Amino acid sequence: MTAQPPLSLLTLRHVIPHPLAIEQWAEVRPLIDGRDVLRKIHPQGMSSCCRRELAGPAEGRPLTATEEPREVELSNNDCVTGCCGGVFVTIHRQGDRVIWSSWRNTDDIRAPVPADIHFDAAQYDAELARAAADHDWEEPVDTVARLLTQAFTDSGWFARWNCLLESVDPRREEPEAVEVYFRAADDPRGCTAGYAYELPVTRHEPAEEQARRFVARIRAGLPSCGMRGSESVGALPGEARGSTCSCVPAPARRPLGPWGGHDAPGRDPRSKQQRTNSCTTASVSSVRAHATPTSLGPTPLTGRYVMPGRA
């Protein structure tokens, strides 16, 4: 009988990204037997597994192992991997083991990749659950983003006003804030505009209190920017009686570009918003530049609704 390969130990570590990284949720980096495997084979890369993806059901998390093998993106260059490359591995469950196999490094095809790695399935599942429940690493902006995500997802508040909550994102670039992105669920004119609340976060007040206040303030109004009752029916967010709303396409979450990873030398010094606007593949800069924000409530992604009352 052929002996099975030895078992390795998986540990997941949260790492705060660079303030100019496209993905602002914390990286979740896999350590195998205590070593950061991505640091060795993709030293300038960012983990493609982020904290946002650990918040949902276990079966939807990127590193969840099933009997059906599936290829998982492990790292990227702060860009889409189809453009700038990354590291991929196939994950599947086989009996009481989880196996990482068929590694691919499209960032540098010359770099050697690991051999198949075997984990004890029980330890593997327990580590994924532990990392999902771990909040000790959080900075205030992470805590506020997590609590807002939970509050709006659990309550279905945006859906009641015929809007779709697209994402809640921390922003680490000064001044720190949490950005809440949403859009109209449907529009008879055939266009859908994206909108955002920008909620300033301070390090001088408990994050839980800031999140509670932000939720209360947003729920006190409407995503349709101050309209009451039936006035909001069928309207795009940002529209009020007698006003017009520019129909603006939302930019890509991770636009293509030449910048490197979170610690890459020669990082593009422009802000994330500037880099997003100049992205040639997103091609939305000229459209966004001509949109006119309304004066009530959240505005199209050309502008921001800044929640007043920063502590």
Total number of beta strands: 14
Largest sheet: 6 strands, mixed
Beta percentage is 15-25%
Rough outline: elongated
Task: Quickly count the domains.
Answer: 2
Could you spell the SSE succession in H and E letters?
A: EEEEHEEHEEEHHHEEEHHHEE
Number of helices: 8
Query: How large is the radius of gyration?
Result: 21 Å
Averaged pLDDT: 75
Helix content: 10-25%
Report how far apart the termini are.
67 Å
Low-confidence spans: 224-311
Provide a descriptive summary of the structure in words.
This protein has 2 domains: 7-133, no CATH class; 140-248 and 291-306, no CATH class. Mean pLDDT is 75; it is low at 224-311. The strands form 3 sheets. The protein has a 6-stranded mixed β-sheet. Strands 10, 11, 12, 13 and 14 form a 5-stranded mixed β-sheet that branches. It has helices at 37-41, 81-84, 121-133, 140-155, 157-160, 207-220, 272-278, 285-289; strands at 7-8, 10-15, 27-32, 35-36, 46-47, 70-76, 86-94, 97-105, 117-120, 163-171, 177-184, 194-200, 299-300, 305-306. By secondary structure, it is an alpha+beta fold. It contains 8 helices and 14 strands.
Short description:
This protein is α+β, with helices and mostly antiparallel strands. The protein has helices at residues 37-41, 81-84, 121-133, 140-155, 157-160, 207-220, 272-278, 285-289, and strands spanning 7-8, 10-15, 27-32, 35-36, 46-47, 70-76, 86-94, 97-105, 117-120, 163-171, 177-184, 194-200, 299-300, 305-306. Mean pLDDT is 75; it is low at 224-311.
